[in-house]
Amino acid sequence: MSDKETNKFPSGWGDEPAEGRNEQRGENGVEEVSHASGVDDMDDNHGPKDGVTFNWVNLIIGVVVVLCFSDGANGLFSGDWVFYPCLAIAVVIHELGHVVMGKACGCFIKEMQVFFLSFISYKPKVRDGGSSWRDIRWSLGILPLGGVTIFKSREAKTKGEAEDLESEGLGTGSMEMGMTPATSPYIEDKPAWQRLLISAGGVLFNVATFLIIYVAMQCVAGEGGVFWGKLMMLSLILAVLNILPIYPLDGGSILFSLYEIVTGKKPSPGFTNVCGWIGFVFIVLFFWVFPEWLGGLLDGVFRLVFGR
What are the sequence ranges of the domains in the chain? Predict the structure, then answer.
C-alpha cells in the first residue's frame, strides 16, 4: 500500500511499516498486526540470526488466545482438520505473490511470515555471491489470521535507526548517489506501477491458484476431494478480501498506486495514516462485529463465479 507496501487479510493485508530496523511490511490478513520477535531472534547487529530460531513466548500466548476463542481443545478446529492446512497454503501462495513480484522489481525483502505471533523462523546463511532469496527470513505464526511480507525501506523511525543507516552510508531522503529505481533495494524508490504489481501480486497468485484447481477439477468431473476443494475456495476468498479498496489491505495499496500514476504525486503520510485507521475500524466491523456483511459479499461472489 502506498510507500509502505503492505500485505493483507487472512493472508496479507496492505503494507504497513514493519517494526524491524529499516523495513516495511507487506501483507497478509485482516490483521496487519505488529510482529513481535523475541530478543533471542536477533544477532549483535540487530538483525535476525541465521538458521532456525524459536519463540516459546509467542507460542504460549498464541495457544492461550486460540483456546480462549474456541470451545476448548476439542473445538479448536471445529472438527475440520483440513481447513487450517489449506488456509496456511493459501496464505503462503498469497505472500509468495508479493515476494516474487518484489524480487522481480529488485526489492530487498526482509521477511515472509505466515500467520501471526511467529514462534518459529528460518533464516538461510548469507553467502558471498549467493542468491538474494537467502536474505529472506521465513516465519510461521500460531494465529491463523493471515500473513505479511516485510520489505526493506529507507524510512527510519528512531534516532538510533537513523544512525544505523548513516553508518551504512544510506540517507533517509532521496536515492543515494548513482542509485536508480531499478538498482535501489528500497520499495519506496520503485515507480508506482511496480509498487502496484507488488501489492497485487498476492491476489494474482490466489486467483491463478483458484483457476488452476477449478479447471483441473472440471477435467476430472469435479472429483477433486475435500482438500483441493477447500484450497480452491480459500484462494478465491483471500483474493476477494484482499482486493477490497480498504487501506491497509492490498486493494487500498493498489488505489494509492493508481492515484500516484494518474496524478504523479504520492498521497501524504498524514492522509495514508488516517486511511489506515479508518480501514482498521472498517475491518473490525466488517469481519468481526457484522460478519453477515462478509457472508453476503462472499455469497454474491460465489453466485457470480459458480452461477449458484
Answer: 6-171+180-306
Residue 10: pLDDT over 50: no
Cell of 48: 535476525
For 287, counting Cβ atoms within 10 Å of its Cβ (0-12 exposed, 13-18 middle, 19+ buried), the class is: middle
Distance CA 293, CA 302 (A): 14
Taking the alpha carbons at both ends of the chain, their separation in whole angstroms is 34
pLDDT tens for each residue of 118-176: 999 999 887 776 677 888 999 999 888 889 999 988 764 444 444 444 444 444 455 66
The position carrying cell 503462503 is: 92
Separation CA 136–CA 107 (nearest Å): 11
C-alpha cell at 25: 511490511
Render 241-283 in DSSP notation, one character per residue: HHTSS-TTSHHHHHHHHHHHHHHS-PPPHHHHHHHHHHHHHHH
Question: Does residue 94 contact residue 136 with C-beta atoms inside 8 Å?
Answer: no
The whole-number pLDDT of residue 114 equals: 94
What's the longest Cα–Cα distance across the chain?
Answer: 62
What single-letter amino acid sits at 288? Answer: W
- Averaged over 51-67, what is the pLDDT? 87
Which one-letter DSSP state was computed for residue 67?
H
